[in-house]
Sequence to fold (138 residues):
Amino acid sequence: MISTATCCDPSPHAEAMSIIPLVPAVAGLLTVALYRIYRHIRMIGYEERVVRAIEVLALFVLLIALMHLTMSVWRAKLGEASTGGMVVGLSLCSLALLRGMLCCWETKLGSLEERPYRVAQRGVVAEPSSSIQISEAA
Fold:
């Protein structure tokens, strides 16, 4: 329906209408990401916590950029809209990279929903090892 409106009506308002559904979708993803961090903060390691916090930041930047892009297109300021589009694209690429890293962690350690059961079975919290110990031979 939105694509038909933009094909038949080339006005800036019709073009902005195609961007509007993305704003609540990203707001929902941001809400879920914040809730997952809040709910599972005790069982994720420091590095994963940092990556998840950066993911929330990237989602927030994406949300602001989408709102700015929508308003720029709505007001027919295409110079501002091109800058907003570049920020949206950069945010999406950053999110893809972060989600890939989190996918690797979840493959190795299990999803956040599975981890309490794995911890109960093992008795310890499994965190990815990132330190190197060097000992001197005396």
Notes: Residues 2-114 form one domain. The chain has a mean pLDDT of 81. The helical segments are 2-8, 12-17, 22-40, 46-74, 78-109, 115-122. The chain is about 75% helix and 0% strand.
